[in-house]
Amino acid sequence: MKLQLSRSIFSQSLISLALLSALSTNNVVADELDQARAIERSSNKAAQLSQKKIDRDAEAIFELKAEIERMEEQVSNLTLYRDHLQKLVTSQDQEVISLESQIEGIAQTRQGVVPLMYHMLGALEHIVLSDIPVREEARDKRLIDLGNLMARADVSDAEKYRRILEAYQIEMDYGTKLGAYKTTIKVSESETRQVEVLHLGRVVLVARSLDTKTHWRWSKADNAWLDTSAEQGLAINQAFAMAEKQQAPAMVSLPLALEIDKAWEVK
User: Fold this and answer.
1) 199 and 187 in contact (C-beta within 8 Å)?
2) For position 44, what pLDDT does the model report?
3) 209: which residues sit within 8 A by CB, 6+ positions away?
4) Phi-psi region of 226 (alpha: psi -120 to 50; beta: other; left: phi over 0)
5) Pairing with 15, which of 6, 34, 126, 147 sits 20 to 30 Å away (CA)?
6) 178-212 pLDDT per residue, tens
7) Beta strands 192-200 and 215-219: pairing type?
8) In Å, how far are 127, 142, 160, 216, 257 from 229, measured between CA atoms?
9) Residue 218 bridge partners (DSSP)
C-alpha cells in the first residue's frame, strides 16, 4: 500500500511538474508573443513615422523644385527685361545724341531765320508801298501787326514765320483775284469820297460812287485817281455786277491801272 501510495504521489508530482512546466512554457510563449506584438506595434509606428517623414520630405522636395522652377523663370524674365532695358538705354542714348544735334542745328537755323523774317518784312513793306492802292488800310494794318509780332517774346519764331508767309499769300491773292470792297479815296487835292472799289489782280483798279453815277480809275503813272468816260463807267458797273455775282460772267473792257488809255478784257 505504501508503495502504491508513493507511486501515486510521485505520479501526481510529475503531473504537477508537467502542468507547472506547461504553464511556465505558456507564460513564456505569451510573454514572447506580447513582446513580438509590442515590437510589431513599435515597428509599425516607426514605419508610419518614417513614412510621414518621407512624405513630408517628398513634399518639401517637390515644393523646393517648384520654387526653383519659378525662380529660374523669374531669372529668365529678368534677363529678358534687362536686355530690353539695355536696348532702350542704347536707343535713348542715340536719341539724346540726335536731339543734341537737332538743338544745335535749330540754334543755327534760328540765327538765320530771324534775320530772314526781317528781310521778308522789309520786302513786304516795299511791295505794299510800290503797289497799286488795293485794300490799303488792311495791308498797312497787317504790316504794323507783323512788326509788333516780331518783338513779342511769347510768340514762337515758327508762328512769326507762319504769319509772314500768310501775309505773302494774301498779297499773291491780290494779284490774281477779282474783288470789291468799300473805302475812302482821294479824288483831288481837296476832296475825298466814300466809294466802292473793284480790282482785278494788279492790272485793273477802278472805283465808283455809292450812287453808282460817278466813276474813277487808278493810274499808276499819275499815282492818282482819274475820272473815266461814260462808256467806261458802264463797263465798270457791269464788272461790279459780276464781282457781286449779280450778273453772269461776260466780256467787258476795263481801263488798266498800269498803262493809261489801254483796255483789259475780263470774262
Assistant:
1) no
2) 79
3) 193, 194, 195, 215
4) beta
5) 34
6) 889 999 999 888 889 999 999 988 889 999 999 98
7) unpaired
8) 30, 35, 46, 9, 15
9) 225
